[in-house]
Amino acid sequence: MKLTTRPFDPDIDSAEEVVALFEEFMQTLPSAIYGYEVDRNQLIMHLATVDALYVAFEDDEMVGLMGLTTMWQPFLKDVKICYEIPWYIRECKSRSALWRRMLKDYELWAAEQGCDGIMLGSIDDRLASIYGRMGYTPHNTTMTKRIK
Question: How much of the chain, in percent, has pLDDT values that exceed 70?
């Protein structure tokens, strides 16, 4: 089985596959549980604003994506952070191996951009625990509640 992670290349990669994966990702979030509808146009506009887009393949099938963006932290002097949204790998045989490769891609790209740190999100406690063992420190919890 051939595993590949690399920056998205519009000359050889399908933008439609990326958007479809992003839509799949959105169905895993609490917003989907609440029944909110995904706005495809907003997804496409968001993907156009990320600083870098990585894709993951199992054999020749695109099974993952990761959008990376940097920002200067408000209220902190000269602190540049990289964060991911979205980061998604669909269920497949190589999911954990691809996840590790993409995390290395993420860390290398952030370092190349001169970032001071990385922010990761997780809606899975098991994954958050793995991040902790890899040197990431949890610093907040996001809660959701539908009010309308």
Answer: 97
In this predicted structure, what is the pLDDT of residue 55? Answer: 93
As a whole number of angstroms, the distance between CA 39 and CA 134 comes to 34
CATH architecture for residues 3-133 = 3-Layer(aba) Sandwich (3.40)
Helix runs in the chain, H state only: 15-26, 30-33, 40-49, 95-112, 125-133
Buried b (16+ CB within 10 A) or exposed e, 100-135: ebbbebbeebbeeeebeebbbeeeeeeeeeebeeee
- State the pLDDT at residue 76: 83
Q: How far is CA 108 from its chain centroid?
A: 15
